[in-house]
Every structure is written in C-alpha cells, then in structure tokens.
Amino acid sequence: MVQKAEKIWMDGKLVNWDEANVHILTHTLHYGCGVFEGIRAYECTDGRSAVYRLTEHMQRLIDSAHILGMKLPYTCPELVQAVVDTLTVNKMKSGYIRPLAFIGDGVMGVHPGANPIRVAIATWPWGAYLGDGALEKGISIKTSSFTRHHVNAMMTKAKACGNYVNSVLAKTEAVADGYHEALMLDTQGYVSEASGENIFIVKNEVIKTTPLTSILPGITRDSIITLARELGYEVLEQLFTRDELYVADEAFFSGTAAEITPIREVDRRTIGAGKAGPLSLLIQKEYFRIVKGENPDYASWLHEYKV
Length: 307
Prior knowledge:
The protein is an alpha+beta fold. 26% of the residues lie in helices and 27% in strands.
C-alpha cells in the first residue's frame, strides 16, 4: 500500500492528500491519454537529500505530453520546483515521486476538445520495487505472451498512461505464474523490455542492451550506459534474441523503481551462475554510489533540496 504523505501538488497548489481528487468524467480516466514519470529522491551518505536526474525526468514528461498533443501549462523549471516543494512540505528526505499530466473533465468522446490539461505530483516512501532481496539475489522472469507495442501502434517514446495496459497484462500474467517480472518481445520477436524496466545482458564482459526501437528511452538506462563505458566496458545498443539472453553470463533490469535488479532465471533457464553476477553487482554498487552522492564526477545528476 502507498503510504500517505501530507500534501500533493495539484495544478499549482499544495493540497491535502485526501483532497487531491478528480471528477469521474475526467477524460484520461476513460481514454488513457495522459503521461507520467517515476522519479526517486535519495538521502545521501552525508545527510543531504537529492532527486536523481530530476530535470531530465521533467523534460521527458513534457516531451511525452508533446508526443500525445498535450500542451502542459507549466515549464520544466516550474515542474522541477514543484517536485522540490512537494518533497519539502512532506518532510521527505528520500522517496518516490510520481508526476502525472492528464486531460480533465469537460466534453466526453474520444476527442478531448478543449478539456483542461491538469498536472499533479505525489510523493511517498518506497523501497525495493521487485521485492525484498531482489537487488542482492536477483529475480526470476518469464517471456510474456503479450507483445510490446509496435512503434506505429502506440507512441513508444512517450511514457503514456495508456501504453501501460500492455504492461499490466504482462506483469499480472507473470506474477500469476509465479515469476517476479515479465520479459516482453517486440513485434519482430526480439527482446524489447520488461513491464516497466529496460534490460541489459552481459557476455564475455561485453554489455548489450536493446536499442531505442520499441522501448522507452529510460533515464536509468542512459545512466548505466554512461557509467559502464566510463568503467571501461564495451556497451552495444543492439537487437538480441530470447535465446541469446538464455546463454548470457549475466542479465539485469534497470529503471527508476527497479534501480539495478539482477536476473537469475528466465523461462526456467538459469542465467549464468543463477545469482547476481559480478558485473551486475559492480554496476549496481557504482550506481548507488552516484545516487547517494559518493561520486563527485556525477554530481550534476543530483538535484539537492532541504527538508
């Protein structure tokens, strides 16, 4: 269950959690045309608080809205400040941040007409997304019976609310079958991504990840590519197949919620040694050093705030 905070930022105002409501005829509730982000704030090792790559996330929110033809009534700097204000009023030194832009009530029917574009930002405490022990031990996943969106059927570069019906179906199926997460293939049969994470595989210390075809351009994904190359590893953005994943030395997911989560099993096939691999753990360790403010080379990725 989501743990309540005191306030939610809604349309430019901080309102009480229980009063952040919308009308039942809100257009996005019926037709799914909205956009959102998932962002994390961390308490750094030295006691500071910082949001990870906040500006990039808010710019992606704006870009996602633009792709869907929604003009947000706030600028990127205004949205960044709204996140800081919400964390501050809720006295949260760390936590999860959920901005949501949606089409409000007015006309009904598929075309939203001149219905207002509304924006909300909620924050709450959140731990490991894929369960206790996932970061250390790795998780088991299955290939979904649901295919990831074709690039001309849905706008795959937008973090759009409606896109995630596909994810809900895949994740629900995987959990019902006893797995932690779903692996989704694209319409050509190549590995795409998970229900809410990007995927990396490792073979002979070469790292490979799906190119920006059917996938959402993950901000954590971009961080890992940058970090791994700085550490001296070759990173290829290249299509790969499910059986190539089966014989990988290591595999892991990346995402704001999942952070760096190793994969120990796919479709009842053990990946590598059946546990988090050494390169996955190294990337994970260095990633957490960055988000905890321990690596000054990446200080620009941290947006500090005071509680």
